[in-house]
Amino acid sequence: MLFIVGSMMFTATFYADPRNCDESERNCAPWLVPIAKVVGGAFGLLGAGKLVANTSSGSAIDPKTGDLVWWQDRVGSSGGHGGRIHPSKISRIRIRSDSDSDEVSLYDHGGERQAYFDGEVIPWPFEKWAKALAEKWPHIQIESV
After folding, report:
1. Domain locations in the chain?
2. What percent of the chain has pLDDT over 70?
3. Which CATH architecture has domain 57-144?
4. Would strands 58-61 and 68-72 be described as parallel, antiparallel, or unpaired?
């Protein structure tokens, strides 16, 4: 959304006449068009950066092994941080929601929290994703706090 709004704002500045004034020529703001161009360009670049960086974290089920695989901070050929666990070894998924943020944790049968597994690697809403996983593997408990 940030990319779209920024791109539209940046593009619109090429069609706006900076000398667009009313008949009295008192309400002129020729400085607004260059500012809108800079702000629109910045928003567009920030949005494009988020689109590119979005692939640096995620999760998927490995079709060969059936493992749940997740990754973060992946850049280029760098593997980044991540982990894998077969869903049969997952005991529970803990989702803590409050007014400011949500936190997601994944635990194995030994009670060990899996590193680098959090809300950045799964799609929102977290409850929907966790319920879909628990439907396929009914032993997984979903703990909402």
Report:
1. 2-55, 57-144
2. 85
3. Roll (2.30)
4. antiparallel
